[in-house]
Amino acid sequence: METTIATWEDQLASIWASIDDVEPNEFLAAIDAHLADLPVGSAIGAFEAAASRDSTGHSDQAVPFYRYALDIGLEGERRRRAVIQLASSLRNLGQIDESLRLLETELALVEGTATVDADEAIVDEPIVEEAAADEAPVDDAAAEPSSTDSDDSNDSNHSDDSDDSDDSGSEPKSEGANSAESKADEAAEPNADETTDAAPAVVDDYLVDELRAFLALCLIDVGREREAAIITLRTLAPHLSRYQRSLANYASALAEPGENSSTPA
Questions:
Q1: Is residue 228 classed exposed, middle or buried when 0-12, 13-18 and 19+ CB atoms within 10 A define those classes?
Q2: Is 104 in a helix, a strand, or coil?
Q3: Count of other CB atoms within 10 angstroms of residue 224
Q4: Euclidean distance between CA atoms 23 and 21, whole angstroms
Q5: How many other C-beta atoms can be found within 10 angstroms of the C-beta atom of residue 195?
Q6: Contact, 70 vs 86, CB < 8 A?
Q7: Is 211:107 a contact under the CB 8 Å cutoff?
Q8: Which residues, 6 or more positions from 216, have their beta carbon under 8 angstroms from its beta carbon?
Q9: Is the pLDDT assigned to residue 162 strictly greater than 50?
Q10: pLDDT at residue number 232
Q11: Model confidence over 131-146: pLDDT tens digits?
C-alpha cells in the first residue's frame, strides 16, 4: 500500500475528529472507506470498525468486531482499548458478568498475577454485519484515537503505539508509543515510617488507570461498592500532590478482614 503508516493514522484521526460535525451514517461510511486500505482480516480494521460503531450508538454491532480483533491478535495500546471498550459495551448491553470477568482478568494480567489467559475470558461470537441497534447506548469508552504526534486527548484513548499491528507487515500502524503518564513526586508526610500499600508493578502502562475505572463501574453494578471505592481511591492516590501514602492506606483500611478483592494493592 502506497500510503505511509503515519499518513494513514493521521487520516484516520482526521475522520474521528469529524464525528460531531457529520451525520453518524456519513461518519461510519468514511471510517469504512478508510479501513478498506487495510488487508482483509485486519485486526486494526476490526477494532476501528467496532470503535466507530460504539461511538455512534451501536454497541451490539461493535461487540463482535471487538471479539474478532482480539481473537486474531490485536496488539499494543489498541488491544488494551479493545478489552476496555468491549467490557464497557457488554456492560451497556446488560452482560455484566462477562464484562467484569474481562476487566478482572486484564487487570491481573497487567499486575502479573493472572491465572487465566486473557483470551479465555473472551466468549467468541461470529461477526454480525447487520444488527438492530437503534436502542443501543453510545459507549463513552469508544472515544476517538489521537494522531501519531498529538498529546493525550479525548477521554482515555490514544492510537499512537508502535506495537499496534496485525501479523501482516503491510498494515498501517502508529509509529510512536506514548510515554508513560508522569506522576507528581510524592510529598513528604510526618511519619516517614508509615507503611504504604503501593500498587504492584505492572507489565505495561497502557491505560491502566482507565482499566481500573471501568472495573470500578462493573463492581458497583454487581453490588461490590466497597471494592470499587478501594480501586478508585488507590488509583487516585498517586496523582495527588500530597497525602498519597495516607490515602492509599485509608483505602486499604476499607477492605474487610479476609476480603479477596480485585484491587491494585
A1: buried
A2: helix
A3: 18
A4: 7
A5: 10
A6: yes
A7: yes
A8: 228, 229, 231, 232
A9: no
A10: 96
A11: 333 333 455 565 444 3
DSSP 146: P
Q: Which residue has the cell 507503611?
A: 195
Whole-Å CA distances, 95 to 18, 65, 92, 105, 218: 31, 16, 7, 16, 10
Q: Contact, 58 vs 184, CB < 8 A?
A: no
Please classify residue 74 by burial: count the beta carbons closer than 10 Å to its beta carbon, then call 0-12 exposed, 13-18 middle and 19+ buried: buried
Indicate whether this model's pTM tops 0.90. Answer: no
Q: Which of 56, 262, 260, 42 is nearest to 166 (CA)?
A: 42
CA separation for the pair 172, 161 (Å, rounded): 11
Q: Quick one: cell of 186?
A: 510524592
**Rounded Cα distance, 67 and 85, in Å:** 11
Largest pairwise CA distance in the chain = 61
